[in-house]
Design brief:
alpha+beta, Pnp Oxidase, Chain A, eight-stranded antiparallel β-sheet, F420H2_bilvrd_red/Heme_oxyg, coenzyme F420 binding
Length: 142
Amino acid sequence: MAQKMTDEEWRAFVSEGTRTGKLSTVRADGSPHVAPVWFLLDGDEVVFQTGRDTVKGRNLARDGRIALCVDDDRPPFHFVTLNGRARLSEDPAELRRWAAKVAARYMGEDRAEEFGARNGVPGELLVRVTVDHAVAVRDLAA
C-alpha cells in the first residue's frame, strides 16, 4: 500500500544515485514546459543550472514558479514532487562551483571539474529553489 515518505526519506530518495528531475516551468502563455535537469539538494534548496536563453531559463527569469518531479519507475514505484520559486544568479564563482558539484553527482568526481568548466560559464544561470511544498509517496504498487 502506498505510504507518505518522511522528510528524511524523500531527501534521501531524491539524492540517491543519478536520478534526474523533471522540471516544470511556466511559459509566457501560462502553459507548462517540462525538461529534465541534473540537480542537488543544498539544505532546503534544490540547486541546478540552465542556459539563460533556453526555454527553462527564459521562463524562470519571467516567472520563477517551478515543480520538480523525481521518480523511480521500477516497481513498487516511488515519487517526490517539489514546489517552490526560483532565484537566479550569474555569479561566475558560484556558478562554476555548483556546476562542478552537480557534475560530480552525475558524471563522477573524476570528471566534475571538466563539466564544471564546461557548464559554469557566462550565459548559464545558477538556479536555487527553496522547497515550499513536497509530496512524497513510496510503494505505490505494493
